[in-house]
Please model this.
Amino acid sequence: MSYTLYGQSGFGSTCVEAALELLDLDYDFEEANPIGDAENRKLVRSVNPVGQVPALILPDDDVMTESAAILIYLGDLHPEAGLAPAVDAPERAEYLRWLLFLASSFYATFTISDGPERFHPDPATHKTLLFQADERRKAMWRVMDDAWKGKPGPFLLGEQMSMLDVYVSMMSYWDPRRDWFIANCPNLAGPVRATEKNPVIREVWSRNYDLVV
Model:
């Protein structure tokens, strides 16, 4: 059984790429830039009408979109890997809460950053929209960081790395950028560094980012 991942280097497909690698699943990668030229945008919309990546073609040819949903699905499909708490595990509620928090409150702001003209046609407003989107991301990181104050680690849910760690690590490279994240999110920075010691994560991140540990 093989998967096909449509994505772009450094975009939200990075975490799905990492998940497929961590689970040792067979997949093909199709480069598709949702904010690239007309041909790229057409390719993305051919698999995801919303025009976003990642889009994952499953072995039965069904299509999955939404990065958090894909991580949850793959983690649950392969419980032997230990990347997702079991449904009845005490960590399950926190796992789902923060994955969806990041998807809805943090990740969603890039819909503005990647195309402010979609929200206001006047270019004079775009600088303000971009600034406010970045400020929103900073506020959301602080909310999550406060929630992890005093948690033992080394990973976000304890002793075992999870898909949540992969998601946070990926997003730490996005605006407001890694330097800001490390300086302002000390409670999340430790688990992120622990995650990035994983050789699979290091390899995937090196293909997508200027890896900083």
Summary: The longest strand covers residues 3-7. The beta strands are 3-7, 27-31, 55-57, 63-65. The longest helix spans residues 126-147.
